[in-house]
Amino acid sequence: MTYVLRRILVLGCFATFMPLAAMAQGAPSAPPPVTVAKPVVRDVIDNDEFIGRFQPVDEVSVRSRVGGYLQEIHFEDGALVKQGDLLFVIDQRPFVTALNQAKAALESAQSTLVFADAQYKRTQSLISSGSQSAQTLDDRRREFDSAEANVRGAQAAADRAALDMEYTEIKAPLSGRIDRHLLSTGNLVQADQTVLTTIVSLDPIDFYFDVDERRLLNFADTARKQGKDLQLGGGGVDVSVTISDATAKPFTGKLDFAENRVDNESGTIRLRARVPNPDLILQPGLFGRVQVAASNTYKAILVPDEAIGSDQNERVVYVVNAEGKVTTKPVRPGPRLYGYRVIREGLDGTETIIVNGLIRARPGSKITPQMSELPQERQDTPPESANAESGQ
């Protein structure tokens, strides 16, 4: 009896564990969950990025128009000055003396003119009675004309002396930031030669950069399609300039100039963008990166960079069909815009692609798709160079 009970218990336990073992060995595993989404389709404009340098719109080397000894300096080094502000004063005493001398010569010439005029009129009144000859009248006329010419010459000399006197006060020819004074008081200033300081304008400010031939043709074509001429005012194309300060927002401006020929040695042409600078943050000489529209508006297919994989020398994306089966599609990536990568070729925007979890997907396998929706623009990724293209 005891043997029979023991046999029944053993058979019961064996029957109980048999289904569990069978399930552990033969039950198929569920497909791995993977995040999928539709590509973003939106209107975009391609940008190209170049490195350049800021330069002032206007720059002046301040010189004196008259020679003499520097007597006064009326500005602080590096200050902002306005057009017409007094900067330097040349010793005025020699010029005061010359002006007084010229005024005295003018008064003498005017006195001689008054006398010659009286003599001429008196001779005119006497010639009718025969008291004076025609020859005498001609002499008086000549003396009057000579005295009148002397007055004009003396007036010109007085005006020149007054102008030289005015030039002893050297004023700012334009508004902007002034450099340090390059000459101290007491030094001799040579007229039209000695540089006293420099002034550069700051608002607006120009940004110069060089463009290669291929992208020059793209810019010219973009400008033509907008009814503009790249050579005439730079086509007025909008640009965005960033500087090395990561906290500073991009500065916007417009192309306003392009050189009239491509450099034979470098194969590049220089372009200029004019950028408003009301806060005077931008300074001449700063380096910057400019982004220029390289196309007109078009419909683009955008996908995250992490959705693009590699298959030998090709770039591919993983496409999921209605049954959850994974296949690959070769694509040609383009520039990075709005936090995504532009797909030039390979997708039409209707596909469902894997955007997260590529490591869990294999071509030909099945996955458990977890549908998500990509925003029109991603702010969580830092902007990259617009011309940084993969596979191009």
Structure write-up:
Keywords: Signal. InterPro entries: MdtA-like_b-barrel, MdtA-like_BSH, MdtA-like_C, MdtA-like_HH, RND_pump_MFP. One of its GO terms (biological process) is response to antibiotic. The strands form 5 sheets. This protein has a 6-stranded antiparallel sheet with strand order 2-17-21-20-19-18, with no helix packed on it. A 6-stranded antiparallel β-barrel has the order 3-12-15-14-13-16. It contains 4 helices and 23 strands. Mean pLDDT is 81; it is low at 13-24 and 381-392. With 392 residues, it is α+β, with helices and mostly antiparallel strands. It folds into 4 domains: 33-43 and 298-371, Beta Barrel (conserved putative lor/sdh protein from methanococcus maripaludis s2 fold); 49-57 and 203-293, Efflux pump adaptor protein, beta barrel domain (Elongation Factor Tu (Ef-tu), domain 3), CATH 2.40.30; 63-92 and 168-200, OB fold (Dihydrolipoamide Acetyltransferase, E2P), CATH 2.40.50.100; 93-166, Helix Hairpins. Strand 20 (326-337) and strand 21 (340-345) form a beta hairpin. It is elongated, with a radius of gyration of 43 Å.
Radius of gyration: 43 Å
CATH architecture of the largest domain: Beta Barrel
The portion of residues forming beta strands comes to 25-35%
The number of helical elements comes to 4
Return the CATH class of the largest domain: Mainly Beta
Q: Span between N and C termini?
A: 85 Å
| Principal-axis shape | elongated
Number of DSSP strands?
23
Class by SSE composition: alpha+beta
Strand order of the largest sheet: 2-17-21-20-19-18
Quaternary class: single chain
Organism: Rhizobium vallis
Main location: other
Domain Multidrug resistance protein MdtA-like beta-barrel: 224-293
Subcellular location: Cell envelope
